[in-house]
Amino acid sequence: MPENRSTAKNDDWLIELFSSMLFGAFTLAWRFRTELAVFCSPIWLSNLLTPLLGGSAGSLLALALVVLAFSVPKSRRWILHRLYVSRLRRRWERACRAVELTDRDQKPSTVTDAAKIAAGDRIVVRVHRGGSVEDLDRNRERLASALGVREVRVTRDSVNAAFAHVSIARRDPLEVAEPMRWPHVDAATLSLWQPIPVGVDDDGEVDLIHLPERNVLIGGEPGAGKSVALSMIVATAALDPNVRLWLLDGKQVELASWSPMAERSVGPSIEEAISVLRDLQREMDARYTALLEVGLRKVEPGIGMPMHLVVCDELAFYLTVSDRKPRGEFGDLMRDLVSRGRAAGIVVVAATQKPSHDIIPTSLRDLFGFRWALRCNTPQASDTILGAGWASQGFDASSVAGFQRGVGFLLAEESSPRRLLSYYLSDDDLEDLARRAQVTRAGIGGGDVAA
Ligand SMILES: Nc1ncnc2c1ncn2[C@@H]1O[C@H](COP(=O)(O)OP(=O)(O)OP(=O)(O)O)[C@@H](O)[C@H]1O
Ligand SMILES: [Mg+2]
């Protein structure tokens, strides 16, 4: 009998050792090869349950648990997601080792989460010990080559400097077969106080322009898509019956649909354009006096001061007229309006075909909160719109292919430019929108207000 007891004790000890080895192997497999851990999980579970329930009952329950885990959608999704993250983590770590982005013990940065995006995958990366997000960003070209993908983009986490959000682009999501219709194309009324969807970026996210207190500058070569981009903003203003529209159109035809609802619509006449800007300057000064009287610092919705939207298609036309005096006066008035108009509820949206320093000086460009560079001829032209240095960092509108109309880079204040494809409004859409805007403004419109 005592002999039997000691044999049982030996067996217990062996079983315990075997169990902990199995658990250790499972944890290791989970860390280094999640697929292996998932594959081995029935054996591990059965080993865990057999001492409690007995041989076949333990094995059966283990098998049932695994089947259950795969048949419940939530847990199946979780397992598949972990397998996906683990696959990306292995690839990422291999690439980091290949470009020598590791700590002193050869440990690379690691992937903590991942999600699919239109261009490929976006991963959350914890940088290696002693490294920084800047190291990753500097090596993005080498990482893209090691991963064998089109592009790698790195953004620092806004809260924790040890984390980066890395987009791994395998394809160009902006190469779409059909133009994308503007989401607000069927709206009955809109508000200029609400963000305006203008396009979709590389990550498949909708880009929004929030106009109050910001001006917009759009630049690009002929046919790049400037007027289409402008028209989404003008359509929003037109469908907001509280907005006063002022149109300056060097070509006359680009903004023609909106002229019936404009306060004033000016063609290629510098004198008329100056007279409109003078009117607006007077309005701006009167507003600041009124705001001072009521103790406000800026125009807000519902205080009885409607927003004014000044739209200028072909800014370069007015800034390059041969007569120096009116050219200078136009430039001064425009600069004053762009710099002081924001808080007074006067917003300028301008487009230009010739983005060059002599036409759009830095002092004027910098006053625009949103800068949108569509395809340009040169990196310098792209920088004239976005700001010096962006092209060399990869945000270069001259890299947009000629056939990619509507593709460009949009820079909003205090961030880096985002590559996007703008929504499209056909001539028929514009006609429809303009007709609806006229009806709404005449006070007989109805329907839903798009938020
Ligand atoms: N977002 C878009 N999606 C698809 N096609 C587009 C888009 N934007 C523009 N296009 C195409 O490009 C053409 C030219 O666009 P648009 O008239 O806006 O260019 P532009 O930059 O204003 O040219 P210009 O400088 O000559 O006035 C459009 O007629 C349309 O066919
Ligand atoms: Mg145009």
Compact summary:
By secondary structure, the protein is an alpha/beta fold. It is elongated, with a radius of gyration of 31 Å.
Q: How would you spell out the order of helices and strands?
A: HHHHEEHHEEEEEHEEHEHHEHEHEEH
Which range does the strand content fall in?
Answer: 15-25%
- Helix percent reads 40-55%
Looking at CATH, the homologous superfamily of the largest domain is P-loop containing nucleotide triphosphate hydrolases
Strand order of the largest sheet: 6-5-14-13-12-7-11-10-8-9
- Stretches where pLDDT is under 50 for at least 5 consecutive residues are 444-451
Question: Mean pLDDT, rounded to whole units?
Answer: 87
Question: For this structure, what is the CATH class of the largest domain?
Answer: Alpha Beta
Largest sheet: 10 strands, mixed
- Taking all Cα atoms into account, the compactness measure Rg is 31 Å
Query: Based on the structure given, which CATH architecture of the largest domain is correct?
Result: 3-Layer(aba) Sandwich
Q: What ions, cofactors and ligands are bound?
A: adenosine-5'-triphosphate, magnesium ion
Q: How many structural domains can be distinguished in the coordinates?
A: 3
Key attributes of the depicted protein:
single chain; Rossmann fold; 3 domains; ten-stranded mixed β-sheet; 13 helices; 18% strand; elongated; binds adenosine-5'-triphosphate; binds magnesium ion
